Amino acid sequence: SQTIHQWPATLVQPVGSPLSLECTVEGTSNPNLYWYRQAAGRGLQLLFYSVGIGQISSEVPQNLSASRPQDRQFILSSKKLLLSDSGFYLCAWSAVGDTDTQYFGPGTRLTVL
Amino acid sequence: AQKVTQAQTEISVVEKEDVTLDCVYETRDTTYYLFWYKQPPSGELVFLIRRNSFDEQNEISGRYSWNFQKSTSSFNFTITASQVVDSAVYFCALSAPGAGSYQLTFGKGTKLSVIP
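Above: the input entities. Below: the structure tokens describing the complete assembly.
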């Protein structure tokens, strides 16, 4: 069966510090991968998605970036965090043969102070 | 443009009551998918169901049932005999693969509180 992991689970970072959130998927090959942000407990916003290694599409311009160095690894980064980057970050995957159904990881709660 | 509206921000019911969560969607695509996800306090989004635009059959899974009506662009979710474990935020979502994007458009969610 497929499993999706995210770490860290929680993170408190000062404004201006860098960020690296990691997501890995097990039990499937060549998944589509997604990063979402949920601010203030509601409203999920798609940030990035990837259909393959090194292929990243950005949905919302901002100071975040994403990378996919391996087939089942997706990383969300920032060089300098802003207060507005606080939120709950969710990684999701979908299968090659069923790209419409997305399955979500446990999430990372980021607080920028 | 796609839009999902969940007009009910919060609902409280007493345990064993039935409750219906409303979802209204907008899309110009003729092929699309509708979803419901559950987000318990732990935060993880749990996939509940997917329906495609060509299948208007209602579906029942245990205490959960879904009513899809294209005529009113609605995809409502009913929990029968609610339990405390049903307390969560429920999201309705829409995707239209023909639009060339993999984006799920989410509603703002309905927070359901089941009181013992």
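Note for the figure: The mean pLDDT of chain A is 91.
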